[in-house]
Design brief:
The longest helix has 18 residues. By secondary structure, this protein is an alpha+beta fold. It is 38% helix and 17% strand. The strands form five sheets. Strands 14-10-18-8-9-16-15 form a seven-stranded antiparallel sheet, with no helix packed on it. A six-stranded mixed sheet has the order 3-2-1-4-5-6, sandwiched between helices. The protein has 18 helices and 19 strands.
Length: 518
């Protein structure tokens, strides 16, 4: 396929607008290409390939051809390499006129469209510029061609629907410290409709260790105000605003503050008191909430996407087609795959059956009655099928090669062929609210994060208690604990001893040492 389509196909019928550069490329690389092809021939002479499993799934027609006889692949490769060699050495050398015309056409094309218009590189952001510029924001429209060009990889990874959703989102982030500015930078670069950065703290020497959008001239100035303009330079498709002052701590004040206008609220460096009030408000008004913080060598994150949050794609994996070898007629019809073909289905997954020969509906036994079957799970459109083809079934896994699809007794016998197409099925996630996650007697930790750090095995609950103790310290003393301050560390240790009783823990000597070094 590489030789036939990627090489010969491009030499004989190059893509429109790229004829000169494609032919020049193959002319300059022809010796290297032929050397590589001869190595492929040597491998084909020595080794016999196996055309089963994933190779067969993805290249069924080719595998069927190669299975006709043992030397079929090698013979076809010899012929295609010979044809490629003839075409490569018929190519004329590139002329100076070709090079000059290509360069001029590139310049003209660059004048026509610049997909980086309105975007600055991170290293180009001027952190020394503290002037109040009036920046012209642009609307982020995922359907526009220039936006599709710029976000092509992003769209490929997430899908156009996810990018559209993000492009229409309004996001509020509190805390313009080292963690907050990193989150802000990533969000603005990715793109959204509006982004507001909030902070009630001023720039200090401590910020120079990790806040990369400030400079020494701005000591004493609000961190959000000095960062907003530089974030805007990253992406003019996003409207960046800033807010200052303390976050509101009652529902009435939060309403007047305008948090209801946002789809997502992110809190960093926020006290437990503020977290609790805003978490309750976000849960009530169905606003996505993310709380993150970093203290020394530890960090925490809390997500509340609501009581029921639908995930359309649970793993991001590409859906596979599985070749069928047999389907039984029984109440729990068994689907058996071709020899060597394994599936990665799980109980509850859905498959679409297609291209099966046989298994028509037994209309002679059911009169003229036909079965009404849902064909589209996304739009719930319904249609009437006269065979098993086009029907969607929930699977129950038996082994890596077999699964059941429910009652198949209403269909005639299976004859041959068929494909089971794995479908994306939405999954509903339930999130605990802030109070349940932080204050319940049994701390629920995500299984994926329970052993993320082997140096802190079994210390996750204690780390959670330390965060709460530090919050209490800051609430009382109106400052963070001092570095190498024994008095402050003892005060935090005493607070931890009281908090761990909620989780029925007893501190050992090594635990007390961990509390002090955190």
């Amino acid at each position: 396929c590489n030789i036939k389509y990627a090489m010969l196909g491009q030499i004989k019928n190059p893509s429109k607008g790229f004829e000169t550069v494609i032919r020049r490329h193959f002319y300059l690389k022809r010796e290297e290409i032929m050397k590589e092809c001869k190595e492929w021939l040597e491998v084909a002479e020595k080794n016999e390939a196996s055309y089963t499993g994933i190779v067969n799934d993805h290249n069924y027609n080719w595998c069927k051809t190669f299975k006709e006889k043992k030397t079929k692949y090698r013979d076809m490769l010899v012929d295609i390499v010979k044809e490629l060699e003839e075409e490569l050495f018929k190519l004329p050398p590139p002329s100076g006129e070709d090079i000059q015309s290509t360069q001029s056409s590139k310049k003209q094309q660059k004048k026509k469209i610049d997909i980086r218009e309105g975007v600055a590189k991170l290293e180009e952001v001027d952190v020394e510029d503290d002037s109040d510029k009036q920046l012209l924001s642009k609307e982020l429209n995922p359907e526009a061609e220039d936006v599709k060009d710029r976000w092509s990889r992003y769209i490929g990874a997430l899908g156009i629907e996810a990018v559209k959703k993000q492009a229409s989102s309004s996001i509020f982030l509190s805390g313009a410290g080292a963690l907050g500015i990193e989150i802000a930078k990533n969000i603005v670069l990715a793109g959204c409709r509006t982004f507001t950065i909030h902070d009630n703290k001023n720039v200090s020497y401590y910020d120079f260790a990790g806040q990369f959008f400030i400079n020494t001239k701005e000591l004493g100035k609000n961190r959000a105000e000095v960062s907003a303009g530089r974030l805007q330079q990253l992406n003019y498709y996003v409207k960046v605003n800033s807010k200052t002052g303390d976050l509101p701590q009652t529902e009435k004040l939060i309403d007047s503050y305008g948090l209801k206008e946002y789809n997502v609220v992110i809190l960093t460096e926020a006290s437990f008191k503020v977290q609790k009030v805003i978490a309750e408000y976000c849960r009530k008004h169905k606003i996505i909430l993310i709380i993150a913080d970093v203290k020394g060598l530890t960090c925490k994150i809390f997500n509340d996407f609501g009581e029921k949050f639908e995930v359309l794609d649970k793993d991001g994996e590409e859906m596979q087609d599985y070749m069928i070898s047999a389907i039984s007629n029984e109440e729990k019809g068994k689907v058996k795959l071709l020899a060597g073909v394994r599936h990665n289905l799980m109980n509850g997954d859905q498959v679409l059956i297609k291209e099966v020969e046989g298994m028509e509906l037994k209309t002679e036994e059911n009169g003229n009655e036909e079965i009404e079957i849902t064909i589209s799970t996304s739009t719930s459109e319904k249609t009437v099928e006269k065979s098993i083809n086009g029907t969607i079934h929930e699977v129950e896994v038996i082994d890596p090669f077999t699964f059941t699809i429910g009652d198949t007794t209403k269909f005639k016998k299976y004859l041959r062929n068929g494909v089971a197409k794995h479908l994306k099925t939405p999954k509903v996630l339930e999130f605990k609210n802030w109070e349940e996650a932080h204050m319940s007697e049994k701390l629920k930790v995500d299984d994926n994060m329970s052993n993320m750090d082997f140096e802190k095995m079994g210390l996750l609950t204690l780390t959670h208690c330390i965060y709460e103790a530090i919050d209490k310290f800051q609430d009382i003393n109106k400052r963070p604990p001092g570095v190498w301050n024994l008095k402050d560390s003892q005060e935090i240790l005493d607070a931890v001893k009281g908090i761990v009783k909620r989780y029925k823990l007893e501190l050992q000597e090594k635990d007390e040492m961990y509390v002090r070094i955190c």
